[in-house]
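During the second year of the project, the team shifted from modelling isolated chains to modelling whole assemblies. The rationale, set out in the original proposal, was that interfaces cannot be judged from single-chain predictions alone. As a representative example for this report, we include one of the complexes processed in the last quarter. Its constituent sequences, exactly as entered into the pipeline, are reproduced here:
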Amino acid sequence: MSDHLLMLGVLATAVAGLWAWHHWHYRSFWLVVGYPLMAIRIRATWRKVALGCNLTKKRQRFWFTTVPGLVASTGVVRVKRKFQRIAVDTKPFMWLPLPTRHGWRVTLHTLEGQIPGDYADAAERLAHSWGVHAVRVSSDKPGRVRLAVTMRDPLVKVDELPPSTELLKVTVGRLETGGSWVVDFKTVPHWINAGATQSGKSNLANALIVGLAPQPVALVGFDLKGGVEFTPYAPRLSALATNRAECGGLLDDLVALMTDRMGLCRMAAARNIWQLPPDMRPIPIVVLIDELAELYLMADKSEKDEVAKTSTALLRVAQLGRAFGIYLFCCGQRIGSDLGPGVTALRAQCSGRICHRVNDPETATMTLGDLDPAALVSARAIAAETPGVAIVASQDGQWYRARSFYVSEQVAEHAAHAYADQAPKWADVMTAQPHEAPAA
Ligand SMILES: Nc1ncnc2c1ncn2[C@@H]1O[C@H](COP(=O)(O)OP(=O)(O)OP(=O)(O)O)[C@@H](O)[C@H]1O
Ligand SMILES: [Mg+2]
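Output from the structure prediction step:
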């Protein structure tokens, strides 16, 4: 009796200890206990799971089978063995799963005729079979696919915005893989940031303002919500337009500035401002646009010319801005082709794509259209309870689920005031004369 009690006591203490370990230091618990158990389970059940997810192939095999029931002359039942051709289900070869920060990843060898898309189609079924949050598929080598598995949604809670250290580069959030979500204007110059109301677009713009405010960068705001979004950040903005007419004026300035910078680069035999010597290099400009659609909507025909002019100027800035240090970050609820050909052309120039929760499939398609269709499915599944979660197309050609760090208006406003002296005056940006190129 006392032995049983002792055993029960030991068992209860062990369970409580494991629970406390899991609760207080999940990462070490996962590496020491969770991961080995999971790896054994995944390998042991792979045949069944692959079969259920239609990832196996029928193959002919020659096999010895037994044919029972032959009665010999002696009356003894004899079992005969026969060499027969039978079909068996072959599963893709699976390497050992390796632990990652939020789950594990594993490499598979595809079977003949299979492509990574077959695994992407089965990703949701795999996630349900393994009881995990998500399975993402990638392939870095023909004949191999890599499954990255996240156990729980790592984006339910993300930490705080870290300080930016590199010019025009801001870490704005966390990727589902545990990596940093970086907006780097020097690598990806123009961005589309789409999402329904309250999906987290302005929060992301706030993160950029906080990240860029201390940097030697001129910030320009196009706030087509009548100025309610960006006016509090005016101290750090070099220029702010609050309606289409003002935006048109600023766009004309930007086009003129681009022409000046072109001349400067030509004189110095440079292809872009980054090839100029630092003392000749003009200040980079980041243009933040909130509610892009307002630039394209027209109530009647009288606005047609104004819209066409604005749209053309914006497109020119997008086409040529990259080389001359002018970068666009366009936020909008709806970025559909119904807004006109200008939007479709602008979208083609914006290689950075961010799609928050959207109301209509067209905006998701327009924002992420040429990516993997699974990205669209993932974008449409973003819940309203997690604002700031978005699908992001990054510079490596992959797409990721990510969440921005929470940056309140107060924090962004504080940064705008704290770094107000860093904001060059627009007139100074405009009149900064191209320096003379050094004599050859
Ligand atoms: N990354 C985030 N983490 C936590 N909360 C967030 C995050 N992003 C946004 N939120 C919350 O969601 C609310 C709405 O976000 P935000 O104002 O950025 O939406 P929006 O897309 O700009 O909406 P609208 O189109 O109406 O301007 C914010 O007040 C904030 O509380
Ligand atoms: Mg907003």
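The radius of gyration is 29 Å. Confidence is low (pLDDT under 50) at residues 434-440.
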